[in-house]
Amino acid sequence: MQVSLNWLQTHIDLGGYSTPQISDILTFAGIEVEGIEEKGLSTDKVVVAQIQSFEQHPNADKLSVCQVDDGSGSLRQIVCGAKNFKAGDKVPLALPGASLPGGFEIKEGKLRGIDSNGMMCSGKELGIGVDTGGLWILDSALPTGKPLNQIVESDTLFDLEITPNRSDLLSHLGLARELAALTGLPLKGPRDHAKASSTTKIETSNLKLEAQDGCPFYTARVIKGVKVGPSPAWLKARLESIGLRPINNIVDITNYVMMEMGQSLHAFDLDKLSGGIVVRRAVEGEKILALDGIEHGLLTEDLVIADSKRALAIAGVMGGEETGVIEGTTNILLESAYFSPSGVRRTSRRLNLHSDSSYRFERGIDSQQVQGGSDLAVKLILEIAGGSAENELSIAGEAPILVGTVDLDEVRTHRLLGIPTLSANDAHGILQKLGLIKQSATPEKSLWTIPSYRLDLQRSVDLVEEVARVIGLDRVPSKFTATFASGDATDRQYDHAMQLRQALANRGFNEAQTLRLISTPQIDDALGNPLGAAGAAALKNPLSEDHTTLRPSLIPGLIASAALNIRQGASRLRLFEVGRIFLKLPNGMVREEERLAILLSGPVSPSSWHGRVTTAADVFDLRGVVESLPGVTALETKVLKDNDTFLLHSEFKIGNRVLGWIAQLHPARARRIDARQPVYVVELLLSALRQGSTGPAKFTDLPRFPGMTRDVAFELPADVADAKVSAFFTSVKEPLLMKSELFDIFADPSGAKLPADRKSTAWTLTYRASERTLETAEVEAAHARILSALQKALPVTVR
Amino acid sequence: MIEDAAHSSTGKITGLMARFGMIRGSRRLHPPYSAPIIAALYPPPLSDFFPAMLFQLDSLKIEALAALESLSDEAALEAFRIDYLGKKGKLTAVSAGMRDVPVDLKKEVGAKLNDVRDAITGGLASRLEALQAAKDAAAVAGIDITLPGRPGQGAGSLHPLTQIRDLAVRTLRRMGFTLADGPEIETEWHCFDALNTPADHPARNESDTFYMPDGKLLRTHTSTVQIRTMESAKALPVRIIAPGAAYRRDEIDATHLSVFNQIEALYVDVDVSLADLKGTLEFFFREVFGPNTVVRFRPHFFPFTEPSFEIDVKLEAKGKEARWIEIAGCGMVDPAVFAEISKKRGDSLFDPDKVTGFAFGMGLDRLAMIMHGISDIRHLIENDVRFLQQF
């Protein structure tokens, strides 16, 4: 909200405070100052000048060359682009050396070859008032040569963020009240307009409330014979200072009253109404052309102000175009009412129609000054626009009582604030300054009457909050205490995930964090079927079609990141992510799960002066990374079928646990992201990884006797998986065999050295006994037993 | 390649030296007793019996030491060893004459023999050592140590958000907080109702919050974990932190993400006050931003805490005016939250008249941007390796 310091000063004398001090007072009372703007001219080099004559610029159609009297006695030549002046007009003239808002300095110079010794200005260029489309034409009575800063009032504008609980601060009087409480300065006038009005109230059949829950209290006052026209300068200036555009005196007065004391009003052109006023719900299909020039369709939950024929205004939100006060209006009906916050909020949100009025009603206005607001507006209308007001104020309903009395629990105050030196007097003093009235007090608690504008003070803790807010946290001591805390599964999960991240970073991988919300085409494209979007959870109200669905896997995000990096010229990609994925289960529920995914592509190591590395990483580089992760032991591989999306697609298991899957991105798809080398991905379940790393490792005693190794090479059909041979060596019953290691594989697709459907593998077998040194003969015998068993178990030919 | 050659030659020479017990520290080279014995032999106070043998030994020594001078490679030294010290070597041949030396002279002649053997072995050893030293020096000659190192598998990195989150987590764990977690797809009750958010609060609108078709929503803050934790807590105190993702229906631009990262803290016990909140946060921010960090608490409004504050940290940069940066929100848990929890639990562990607590939360994305001077939040989700490798 824009707040004018000059306006505030009509209620409280803040002369003793500098702008930064006021800003600090507001800030530490919970009123955030988002901006401060000094309006007006600090320079005295902008003067009142009179245009004596002007002629067309010889070299530029749009420019004029003007001879201007700046009060110095001799004429000054100024080249000017504006058109809205005539000879004899008085305008602001910025002399050379003048510094205008935005740090713009005026210098003597030439414009299209013609000397120009200054600049004639618009209001906007001077940072005063609003743009009127050209030079600011000044009052002709002003003396030529007089510095403008002696004529135009300067002001300080605060842009304040009022928290939603403090609707009472949405007016200058409300803020002045708060500042009075915070500074101890007196208010110049009354705290509010809630005092009983001297105007007579009548209930009339011309005013009906049909929806009391949306509008419990409505008032209307008729004023006849007004003269609608421009507002006087002071009123225009007030509104302009806080960024409101003056319209006409009646509308301006309603806006002024709203910004002055928070009551939103509306003036109807009485002669355009048919019959009395009804406050009712809209009927099915009802429409209204509002002052924003848009026809809004209404629902039956929306509240309208209507006459006997049609809706005249959307209650609390905006008036209708047809019945607004315009030039020529002579008789008006002035509405002042209390509309319930939830109704106004619902309608204004749905129509996406927000006004200063709806802003205030949504947050809640002071129900006790509905009539005070009307009285103030009537007084101003009679002063400014003339006419005569009816003696009676028509009313319907009753102003709701929204606040009452609240206890301050003294013990709780102490406990919650933790200020040992806080006395009851301190706390009570603060509440009294804020306008609360003490009804009674005991050492345990005191009872307070809440002013009608403080809708936020309903409970004891609300009063504690007020004390804390005003005292500030400076008086609260800083307590440094901790309690012992025992970790649980979440702590271990966090540590495990960090351990994984660190392990991968140490192996040269860069951690990515990709979007959780992605699109279904992206999911299908990255995962194909059946892993794709069918198992993903879609949002009901996505914001854009790129972010419709919660990711069912980390892989689509990593592929997108790979594509981005390839576009930036990277060819060596080592990315990983640890994060949450979302799986839609057959029963419709969504399971959230933490996963680790890795993407690998490009040269195995970076090139450097040691050599240009061209060897592309392959699936075994990635598998090697997986095998090195903490918690991974004895990885079992279940080969899945290749498809359009993946090659080498395989599932990893440890025992019965599924650990995840590995694959090469199908080359056709890799080419689509311009990858020049194969792209490999792996995705693992963190829960499965964690199970593999429970508890401290158990020590195995070191061998005390030397072992002996024997190498064996054998041929076997090319399609027999290594895992089968490996499983044979692991499970064969030979107590002396300690270890088997594959050290070579040979195959010749040409069939020249070995039939193309055969391969040759070579293994080193280690024999050892734990309690003695083996004799050669024993080893030979054991080795022979193994080879014979091997040939029985598998279709191998020992070479 | 240079290193490889050096290694293999070092290996060979060291092997050779070890074979003859010439490695420094080997027993045979110590003590150096040959010099006094040589002095005792000249002039030789000997009987006439074996002057030839003594003479032979002397000349063998002179010959051998002279021969060593000219030898400069391993092979020649090995040949020299065989020539003099081998089984059929010259010294071995002379020493065979010891059998014929009369008993009373054996000591004298034996000493002479030892002296000559030591001189030859010592000479050989020092030649080998010199040769090794020259090779060692040659092995590193010409290496330009200013060249960059081998990149290995390249430099990996942790995402800046991970690093900042871990910094926060490590700090808060030292302060006695443990981790808590909760789902990101939440019920409206956990996200709003339980947190004292009015039924018609704008945050609940579909324009601001993502909903699932079944009416659940994507949590708009990690404060839901406060509720989850209190729902299942077995005893007081509750002292937890919850880092995690939250969602808001915002268009992605330079300062907004629709998914962002927060860390949440909650401390509930029978006597938690604003003083605990203030001390905890001051300590935390000094740990994170440095011991001279100044923080300020501005009163604010949140539905789930009362009183509520926003926290600004004063950031000072050289040559620039210090700035207050809004960094977190906090407050004392609103009794309405405890009341709602108690209703749900059906017990009095969180009786609003008995317990008090504080909560705070902060945006980790913002924290990372401030700490690293990142101007556009989208860098955090694009995963450009050139960005990631800077951290």
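Residues 2-140 of chain B form one domain.
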